Amino acid sequence: MNATSASLSRNAVGAFGLFAVAVYFFLYAPVVTMVILSFNDSIGIGLPWGGFTTRWYRESFANTLAIGAFFNSVRLAVVVSIVSTTLGLGVALASRRIFKGKALVLNALILPLLIPGIVLAVGQITLFNVMGFLPGLWGATLLGHLVYTVPFAFLNIFPRVHRFDPNIEAAAADLGATPWVVFRTILLPQIMPGLIASLLFCFTLSFDEFTRTLFLIGSENTLPVYFWSIILTDPSPAASAIATLSVLFSLSVIGGGLLLLNLRRRKGDSDATPVGAH
């Protein structure tokens, strides 16, 4: 019986291992394929392999339209991440208090996550047209991205805020600290990891967003919209090169954020270690 159980356990582990390999293959094989084909010396975006070249990267760095679209994406993502995190923090702080309609407010904030992006984008552009609000990068697109990212910012910050003991803030207030001093010196350091996570998450969501942007941006471009246009009009390995550079940029942003969080964690551990313990 024990031998049978051990055999079944090994079979189960093997089956789960094969399943995990299949999942990771389907997740990352398209990205690896795209990276490899970005070095293909061919006029087509796929096979056959025509030899190794960096031509498409040189063309991408010299492509003023692609560079302009990239900087549009970066500027928009920076603004969206800051505004979303600020709004998410405000709602998270407000939700610590009991007020009439609290459940309705929180549910309404999360609701956009349940609506398909294309449905929400069509509804937004229809409303903006009725209001006479023209599509554009810093108007309709910015608002559309905020509707998308603010719920994620709130969900990143909310647990950090609500795990913090309010009695500590009350004690500081009893000792004469103003609300701003309490927030800056006591609450803010504790919730900073959640704020950094929110900034990173909202940045990448906005930077990579395509569906909402396509409907709301009008005649301007972000990098995902520009990438879509060249896939339709000129599907060369340059598209793979641009996509690879975009992935590398997103990974570098996330890596930088994780490094910052790790440095803060180490600093916090160092500050918390008694002097005599060294």
Rg, nearest Å: 24 Å
- Portion of residues in beta strands equals under 5%
Broad shape = globular
Number of helices: 11
SSE string:
HHHHHHHHHHH
Query: What's the level 1 CATH class?
Result: Mainly Alpha
Corresponding CATH architecture: Orthogonal Bundle
Total number of strands: 0
Question: What is the structural class?
Answer: mainly alpha
> What is the arithmetic mean of pLDDT?
85
Key phrases:
single chain, 278 residues, MetI-like fold, 11 helices, globular
Task: Outline the fold blueprint.
Blueprint: H1 2-37, H2 55-61, H3 64-94, H4 102-110, H5 117-131, H6 137-163, H7 166-174, H8 179-208, H9 211-216, H10 223-233, H11 237-272
In short:
It is built from 11 helices and no strands. It is mostly helical and 278 residues long.
Could you explain the architecture of this structure?
The longest helix has 36 residues, at 2-37. The protein is mainly α. It has helices at 2-37, 55-61, 64-94, 102-110, 117-131, 137-163, 166-174, 179-208, 211-216, 223-233, 237-272. 78% of the residues lie in helices and 0% in strands. It is globular, with a radius of gyration of 24 Å. The chain has a single domain (52-277), classed as MetI-like fold, CATH 1.10.3720.10. The mean pLDDT is 85.
